[in-house]
Amino acid sequence: MISPTLATAARLRDLLAREIKTGELVRALIVVGPTVAAYFISRETALLNLGLVAVSLLIPALRQHFPPKVIAWHYLAILVTFAALFLAAPIKPLFVVLTALAGFLAVAGTRHGEHFRTLGNWVFIPAVYLACEVREGVSASEALRHAGAIIVSSPIALALVCSIQIYDQRRRGNAATSFGPPAAEWFLPAAATAMAVFAAAALVEILDLAQGQWVMWSAASVVVGDLAASTGKLKQRAIGAFVGVPLGFLTGLLLPPSRIGYAVAILAATLTLISFSRYIVGFGLRCFFIALAASFAGGASGIAEQRIVNVLIGGTFGLVAVALTETVWRRVMQRARSPG
Fold first, then answer.
1. Average pLDDT score over the chain
2. Among the listed ranges 116-120, 137-141, 319-323, which one has the minimum average pLDDT value?
3. pLDDT of 178 above 80
4. Cβ proximity of 319 and 302 under 8 Å
5. Are 284 and 28 in contact, with CB atoms under 8 Å apart?
6. Which of 56, 60, 36, 31 is nearest to 47 (CA)?
7. At residue 276, what are phi and psi to the nearest 5 degrees?
8. Nearest Cα to 107, choosing from 274, 20, 222, 210?
9. Contacts of the segment 323-328: beta carbons below 8 A, 24+ positions apart
10. Radius of gyration over alpha carbons of the chain, in Å?
11. Angle subtended by helix axes 300-337 and 227-253, to nearest 10
């Protein structure tokens, strides 16, 4: 007869096996872990942001079985987009327009293959996040130094991800790279994404919102299909933020500020981008670790509130953009069908 303790342990093990993608977690730890170790040695905060570049390269590479050549092109796209947005940041109207264009292009690629959406997302997300993050609360010279450190050290991320892919391809054999069939309807979601990101970026720049990257990221993230699907995505993000952020903040209250704790929390938050089967679990834990990292840095309360508000604002922009594009498209189609 199985004891209650063993039965509980077995259920917990099965639950973790379903929720956690162990293979992806191990690979993400291999490519992100060295950047955290380098941060401990050098105390260079740019190296923590480098982890986002690494995991952004890794996610499409694993999902689409990219060879190193495609990973290298993806890497260049991230750097070029990041550099363009960073350099445009002092000119607010230009930054807003370029961010919206980046959102449009992230989705427009699906006209050549539906899986280009994954690739586009993981160009848009790190580029926008880093362009905002490196200039948050610092002088122009310090922001330039931080951006330069990311670009100079970024080949490390590329080399680590390519090494993972070369190892995997030797084990399973070279798999053909395919981006799937072209999306039949690519323009509407691309236009909705551009509209949502434009509105989000404009609001961030007009009101000078702190942590504004989360507004833009959320605006683009919610545009996943029709209005029903987008509403469901926003609900998951809202639940994750409302649960994860307060728990992270409360946990942080029990722990003293710590550079080690901050680095580990950032590492954990980065790993949640790839390690969980269900989006709501990964996003909730990401919110938890971001609030916890802010606590270790000494500012969790403000970050916690901003995180929740920014997720909701950005998601709302996404829903409105999807609703508008669907409404306009229906009217255009009705007029086209009506007799002259």
1. 87
2. 137-141
3. no
4. no
5. no
6. 36
7. -120, 145
8. 222
9. 323/227, 324/192, 324/195, 325/188, 325/189, 325/191, 325/192, 325/195, 326/188, 326/226, 326/227
10. 21
11. 180
In sequence order, what are the beta bridge partners of 276? Answer: 20
What are 135's two structure tokens? Answer: 């200039």
Q: Could you tell me if 183 and 110 are in contact, meaning their C-beta atoms sit under 8 angstroms apart?
A: yes
Question: Which of 283, 120, 94 is CA-nearest to residue 189?
Answer: 120
- Extended beta strands in the chain, E state: none
pLDDT band at 257 (very low <50, low <70, confident <90, very high): confident
Q: Estimate the share of the chain in helix, then strand, then coil, as percent rounded to the nearest 5.
A: 80, 0, 20
| Dist CA 47 CA 65 (whole Å) | 26
Q: How far is it, in rounded angstroms, from Cα 71 to Cα 112?
A: 18
Let me know how long the chain is: 340
Determine the straight-line distance between the first and last CA of the chain, rounded to whole angstroms: 79
What is residue 18's predicted lDDT score, i.e. its pLDDT?
80
Taking 70 as the threshold, does the pLDDT of residue 209 lie above it?
yes
Cα(26)–Cα(22) distance, integer angstroms? 6
Contact (Cβ atoms closer than 8 angstroms) between residue 245 and residue 291: yes
Tokens standing for residue 167: 């190892």
Q: Please, is 256 exposed, middle or buried when counting C-beta atoms within 10 Å of its C-beta (0-12, 13-18, 19+)? A: exposed
| Global pTM value | 0.91
Tell me the sheet residues that pair with 20.
276
Most confident of 6-10, 110-114, 180-184: 110-114
Query: What burial letters (b/e) apply to 227-253, b meaning 16+ CB within 10 Å?
Result: eeebbebbebbbebbbbbbebbbebbe
pLDDT band at 10 (very low <50, low <70, confident <90, very high): low
User: Which stretch of 35-44, 103-112, 234-243 has the lowest confidence by average pLDDT?
Assistant: 35-44
Q: What is d(CA 25, CA 314) in angstroms, rounded to the nearest whole number?
A: 28
